[in-house]
Design goal:
The complex is a heterodimer of chains A (112) and B (459). By secondary structure, chain A is an alpha+beta fold. Helix content of chain A is 19%, strand content 37%. Chain A has a single domain (2-111), classed as 2-Layer Sandwich (Alpha-Beta Plaits), CATH 3.30.70.120. In chain A, strands 2-5-1-6 form a four-stranded antiparallel sheet, with helices on one face. In chain A, a hairpin with a 2-residue loop joins strand 3 and strand 4. In chain A, helix 1 runs antiparallel to helix 2 (70-80). Chain A is elongated. Chain B has 459 residues and is mainly alpha-helical. Chain B has one domain (25-445): Ammonium transporter fold. Helix content of chain B is 67%, strand content 3%. A three-stranded mixed sheet of chain B has the order 1-3-2. A two-stranded antiparallel ribbon of chain B has the order 4-5. Classes of the chains: A alpha+beta (112), B mainly alpha (459). The A-B interface holds A 44-49, 51 and B 56, 238-241, 295, 299, 301, 303, 305-306, 309, 345-347, 349-350, 359, 362.
Chain lengths: 112, 459
């Protein structure tokens, strides 16, 4: 099992959710986050004061998938979140040791 | 044509009759207008100015600004009735009025206050209320200079001191006069003028408060922010407006309310009032444009905060001039004020490195000075102005721009020096008695929770 964490542009969230649903991923967790990579921020001017805003709003999604579906899920996210412009985000994949469904007590792939 | 002619003859006859025996009467139309104007000026303070300022502070200080403006309004309203009106608007010496109307003593529903036409009066009670609103907005303007870091108690004590020793005498110096009916002939006119305020005697023109309200408040703000010091994190951390939307709403309410401020100052609903209306409208529009264009060219983007600030800069500058300027003079004054005030808050402030949080000096002080001096130019009949009325000859007096400029300089210099000195002394006294500034921890947490025990938005 793997945990896929993707940082994407907020307006791409719906596309990514749809792409993942289509391939059978049934649960996603989403958080509104701020950050920057190569895109950098922008400048805001208020009368005499100039502020460089480094951290831009992004959406962070977390998806747990069985090993079999990892490649497919990564492609789905990468395709759906792509605009070709700087700031599209990144995907991180980490090993997932255990999953438990709280209601039934199921564990492992069954709980996904 | 015939009926027109007869009106001419009648009015000529009427004015001739007036010259002989003036019967003072209260005009119901004028009274109704000044009542409405008074309400409009209240709208400028609460919520107009409160929202204009409140939107520009960080979210943790929103309520502190609203509260300061709201309570200053209430506090000065009461002080005005107790002694303010008497010191500003009764005969005394050239600098302070007397105590004959403390507690509004002797004023009845039948008491009358003079307007700017012979024989035309309004009830004194509404004049008291109208002038009250001017007294309330002036100290409320000051708090913008040191927003986000001063104790509520310190602000209230300073307000009482400054209102008593700066607002009241300057209002008396500029605006107190015996009224037009006292100017029956040259000799009576001279005698009447001798009882007027110091700057009135100097011939300074200040229709709705360029010196009394804006220079006065702007200078107090500058002194305050210099003595209090910069906000923690100034120049390093984000001290950004929490809601430019609120600021836009506030600026728009100020713009609307300003028609009460300027047009109401005419005290009569007549043709001159209509000219003041047009002047106020055009100067604000012109300054909005000039600030926006200047910002667009110099900073790359035209901002909403800039447009709102420009409108206020234009309104400030036309305030002293609105009763004597022509419409084109108003546009000129507005264009100039928008550009210069933009320069003062973006370039001058950055160079001199003082933290006038909401630009009380940069907009009101600088705009007020431009307006006060500009009045001498735009009032000139040669440039489409109305000139200055001579109540002895009942005609427009001969106009000299140079003489008028010197009169205007008097009002600017006196307002700067007087308000500067009183503010310095008052801030120092308050600092010794209760301390001006909140603790560093309170400033970090924000004044809303630490000073007022509440939060602006519980979303």
């Amino acid at each position: 099992m793997k945990l896929i964490t993707a940082i994407i542009k907020p307006f791409k969230l719906d596309d990514v959710r749809e792409a993942l649903s289509d391939m059978g991923v049934s649960g996603i967790t989403m958080t509104e986050v701020k950050g920057f990579g190569r895109q950098k921020g922008h400048t805001e001017l208020y009368r005499g004061a100039e502020y460089v805003v480094d951290f831009l709003p992004k959406a962070k999604i977390e998806v747990a998938v069985p090993d079999l579906l990892v490649e497919q899920a990564l492609q789905a996210i990468a395709k759906a979140a792509n605009t070709g412009k700087i700031g599209d985000g990144k995907i991180f994949v980490t090993n997932l040791e255990q999953v438990i469904r709280i209601r039934t007590g199921e564990t492992g792939d069954e709980a996904l | 044509m015939k009926s027109l002619l007869s009106i001419f003859v009648l009015s000529a006859f009427a004015s001739h009759a007036f010259a002989d025996a003036v019967t003072p009467t209260v005009n119901k139309g004028d009274t109704a207008w000044v009542m409405v104007a008074t309400i409009l000026v209240i709208l400028m303070v609460i919520p107009g100015l409160a929202l204009f300022y409140g939107g520009m502070v960080r979210v943790k200080n929103m309520l502190s600004v609203l509260m300061q403006v709201f309570v200053i309004f209430a506090l000065i309203a009461v002080l005005w009735a107790l002694y303010g009106y008497s010191i500003a608007f009764t005969e005394g010496n050239a600098f302070f009025g007397g105590f004959s109307k403390v507690f509004l003593k002797g004023i009845t529903p039948d008491s009358m206050a003079a307007t700017f036409s012979k024989g035309v009066y309004i009830p004194e009670y509404i004049y008291v209320a109208f002038q009250l609103t001017f007294a309330t907005i002036t100290p409320a303007l000051i708090i913008g200079a040191f927003a986000e870091r001063v104790k509520f108690s310190a602000i209230l004590l300073f307000t009482v001191l400054w209102f008593t020793f700066s607002y009241l005498p300057i209002a008396h110096m500029v605006w107190y006069w015996a009224g037009p009916d006292a100017y029956t002939d040259a000799k009576a006119g001279e005698a009447a003028l001798a009882t007027a305020g110091f700057l009135f005697q100097k011939g300074a023109l200040d229709f709705a408060g360029g010196a009394v309200v804006h220079i006065n408040a702007g200078v107090a703000g500058l002194v305050g922010c210099l003595l209090v010091g910069k906000r923690i994190g100034y120049g390093k951390e984000f001290l950004t407006p929490h809601s430019v939307t609120m600021t836009m709403i506030g600026a728009s309410l100020l713009w609307v309310g300003w028609f009460g401020f300027n047009v109401g100052s005419n005290l009569e609903a007549n043709g001159l009032a209509a000219l003041v209306f047009v002047n106020t409208l055009l100067a604000a529009a012109a300054a909005t444009l000039s600030w926006t264009v200047a910002e667009w060219i110099i900073r790359g983007k035209p901002s909403m905060l800039g447009a709102a600030s420009g409108a206020i800069a234009g309104l400030v500058a036309i305030t002293p001039a609105c009763g004597w300027s022509g419409p084109m003079g108003s546009i000129l004054l507005g264009l100039l004020s928008g550009g210069v005030c933009f320069w003062s808050v973006t370039i001058l402030k950055a160079k001199l490195k003082y933290d006038d949080s909401l630009d009380a000096f940069g907009v009101h002080g600088i705009g007020g000075i431009i307006g006060a001096l500009g009045t001498a130019v735009v009032a000139s009949p040669a440039l489409g102005g109305t000139g200055v009325w001579d109540y002895v000859t009942n005609s427009v007096a001969e106009y000299s721009m140079m003489t008028q400029m010197i009169s205007q300089l008097w009002s600017v210099v006196i307002a700067i020096v007087w308000s500067g000195a009183v503010s310095f002394a008052a801030f120092k006294l308050v600092d010794v008695l209760i301390g001006l500034r909140v603790s560093e921890e309170d400033e970090r947490l924000g004044l809303d929770t630490t000073e007022h025990g509440e939060t602006a938005y519980n979303l």
